[in-house]
Amino acid sequence: MKKCRRCSKPATLHITDIREGVAHELHLCETCAHEYLNNAGSELPQSAEESEPFALKGTEDPDELEQLDQVVCQNCGISFREFRSQGRLGCPHDYIAFEAELIPLLENIHGDTQHCGKFPKRAPDASQRQYRLIKLRNELRNAVGQEDYEDAARLRDEIQELEQGIEGSETE
Questions:
Q1: Average of per-residue pLDDT values in the chain
Q2: What percent of the chain has pLDDT above 70?
Q3: 3-state secondary structure string, the chain?
Q4: The predicted structure's pLDDT at residue 5
Q5: 91-133 pLDDT, tens per residue?
Q6: What are the backbone angles phi and psi of residue 99, rounded to the nearest 5°?
Q7: CA 134 to chain centre
Q8: C-alpha–C-alpha distance, residues 71 and 135, integer Å
Q9: Domains of the chain by residue range
Q10: What backbone torsions phi and psi does residue 101 show, to the nearest 5 degrees?
Q11: Which of 98, 11, 16, 12 is nearest to 51 (CA)?
Q12: Are 83 and 54 in contact (CB under 8 A)?
């Protein structure tokens, strides 16, 4: 779910305004939408940089923007500037190459960086168990890092139980 452009509430109104042949998108919560509509739309972005679909909020320093635009994926060659203008990554390695820039962007757009939706019904049980195992190992790493040893022990036991279930299903 997209967040409001002016505050951090979920956007409930999505406006596409075309001025001088250029489309400008606004995502606003109900409160900000009332203010916007009462002010006759004076808040539309004026520059191309502001109207980029994945422009970085809070990054107004031109040197900082130029530095971010020099970040390039070693695998596919796409630059962060190209990603920002297209809205599409070039390859799976881009998530690693642009990690520092993508994390805040994903949190802003989706509210999280971890998939928490449904799995396809026809997905094999083994792949779902493997996904669960990876998630538990990450949680274990975080618990140890935060010195929460009780939770870490519980996670360790759960991981061992799940690993035994995976090994048992592979031998059948």
A1: 76
A2: 76
A3: CCECCCCCCECCEEEEEEECCEEEEEEECHHHHHHHHHCCCCCCCCCHHHHCCCCCCCCCCHHHHHHHHCCECCCCCCEHHHHHHHCCCCCCCHHHHCHHHHHHHHHHHHCCCCCCCCCCCCCCHHHHHHHHHHHHHHHHHHHHHCCCHHHHHHHHHHHHHHHHHHHHHHHC
A4: 76
A5: 888 888 888 888 887 777 777 777 677 766 676 777 778 888 8
A6: -55, -50
A7: 19
A8: 29
A9: 1-47, 52-113, 125-171
A10: -85, -30
A11: 16
A12: yes
- Token pair 């799995």 is at which residue? 119
> Which stretch of 40-44, 68-72, 133-137 has the lowest confidence by average pLDDT?
40-44
| Cβ-Cβ contacts under 8 Å for 98 (sequence gap 6 or more) | 71, 73, 80, 83, 89
Neighbouring C-beta atoms of residue 52, cutoff 10 Å = 15
Tens of pLDDT, residues 119-168: 666 767 777 788 888 889 989 999 999 999 999 999 999 999 988 876 66
